[in-house]
Amino acid sequence: MSISRAQAHGIIEQVKKQEIALGRDPNTWYLYENHVVGAAKIAQMIASEIPVMDENRVYVMGLLHDVCKTEEDRKERFHGILGYEKLCNQDEEIARACLLHSFPWRKLACYEMYAHWFYNKKEDYDFIENYIATHPAKDEDYLIELCDNLANKDGFVTLEQRAEEYGSRHPSEDLSPILIASNEIKDYFEKKIGHCIYDFYKKR
Ligand SMILES: [Fe+2]
CB within 8 A of 94, min separation 6: which ones? Predict the structure, then answer.
């Protein structure tokens, strides 16, 4: 079974309703929505110029990659794992985007570096490590990681703008390795499409 674009938007609507029922101010929902819709749109635009990629599929991956982000603190589990668990029976490919989108080039640093991301649940880190070891890389894995970093609460941003904004919220994290790797992934896709990814921003 695969999740369509309309179904994916329906899932996001359900998450919104659930969050508002739990007390979220509806006027702040755009902060989340601009990020996930921005990631979906830029993923689609890039994929539309790569014949082997399915632009509708990557749109859905971009839209749902953070489907459990808002539940992370409540449940004290890494949102990528929660998203994978939520969607894996419906659509493994989309669930995979949830699971892998936070790790540039699918590279995991040691558990000690990530323990806080995983709420100190080593079994969740081990699950992702094992998943990566047993599932060969696909370009979609790299694309969604990149697109996660090309959109924020305001929509499209450069990797540098995204890192600066994230860094201001998480001052103790060293983001330089992620920024370097994300720029490498950007170069990887720019070679495939033959132009700068930021050119898409001018066409909006
Ligand atoms: Fe994200």
Answer: 2, 3, 8, 60, 61, 64, 87
